[in-house]
Amino acid sequence: MRKSIIVSLFAVCLVILFFTLTSMVKVFSSELIEPALTAEQHNSYRLVLITRELDTPFWAKVERGAKAAAEQNGASLEVWGTYGTNRDDFLKNIEVAIASKVDGIIVQGLDTDEFKSLTKVKAASRGIPVITVANDVPMNESLRRTYVGSDHLEAGSMIARQMVSDMGFVGKVVLMVSDRQEYFQRTRLTGILNVLNSYPKIITKIVAAGDSREDVAAATNELLNEEPDADAFIAVSANHAGSIIQEISKRMRVDNFFIYSFDDSPETLTLMQQGKIDALIAQSPEAMGEESVALMIKWLTGEQVPLNPDGYFTDIRVMRAEDAK
Where does 148-260 have alpha helices with state H? Predict the structure, then answer.
């Protein structure tokens, strides 16, 4: 009898010990596994950055900032783009991103009906938030959540004020724009004209050129024939500056003109160092990439809803020729 009681007690102790050890294993396992699950869940955010200018130093900086922010926030970021300005491939990348059901799209804005249809209809209907970066499109036409980049209206005003400071209150100014102006170009142009219209003795002439260097050179050559007394040029599209200066230098001294542009690209910085560009508006592309990703994460987590529909402006500044040396 006594032996049976001892055996029973021993069996009970073994059962208690088994459940105790099992509970301890569960507790320790939950402490070890839970953070990993949380991190894995946070890493499930899949973002894509899409640009039409993958091969430019400007967008390389945007990409660097975006990747740093994605890593810091534990998100996955893919960078898709086209070399050159192939719009069809660019739009196809957006369509593929939507079809792939990514969590968020950060994209260089393109002011076309096709772009707006993709963001306003396809992306919005699938609940995929879109943030435009560097180049904006009107919110009511695209349903983008917000914009991150330069205040192009203020950028135009800043370069115009700098030109007036350099040239004075009298002169003839050529504003070189693209044939098909993007929204950011129109905004820059508005900022320039808002300032120059206050000076009745400053005459402005808007000249439309294509996007190729040959088209810009041809437009500049024709302008010099028609307006040989021009005093200043503002390249509203940054990639026009080099062609303008090259064409002027074939006929006369470049330093006879006041020349201004936007974006501190390697080409424009070189031209500034040579004294051929008087000033330009320098942007903050790396900050654009960082902030666009950070805001997308805040939207997805519900930390910041809604985002500011007017956008988040990154730093811009006037860079003079002496700053580039």
Answer: 152-167, 183-196, 213-226, 241-249
Task: Give yes or no for a contact between 62 and 288, defined as CB atoms under 8 angstroms apart.
Answer: yes
End-to-end CA distance of the chain: 102
Q: Does position 319 have pLDDT exceeding 70, yes or no?
A: yes
Three-class SS of 279-291? EEEECCHHHHHHH
Length reported for the chain: 325
Tokens of 77: 């970021």
Centre a 10 Å sphere on the Cβ of residue 70 and count the other Cβ atoms it contains: 24
- Residue 220 confidence (pLDDT): 92
Please report, as a single letter, which amino acid is at residue 309.
P
Can you give the pLDDT at residue 2?
A: 47
Tell whether omega for the bond before 306 is within 30 degrees of 0, i.e. cis.
yes
Name the residue among 199, 257, 183 with its Cα closest to residue 224: 257
- Within 8 A by CB and 6+ apart from 213, the residues are 242, 243, 246
Range in 155-159, 194-198, 266-270, 281-285 with the lowest mean pLDDT: 266-270
Chain mean pLDDT for the chain: 86
Structure tokens at 152: 């192009």
Ramachandran region, residue 264 (left: φ > 0; alpha: ψ -120 to 50; beta: rest):
beta
**Which tokens go with 28?**
């320790």
> Using one digit for the tens of pLDDT, what is the confidence trace for 226-257?
988 999 999 998 888 999 999 999 988 998 99
Structure tokens of 27? 């507790």
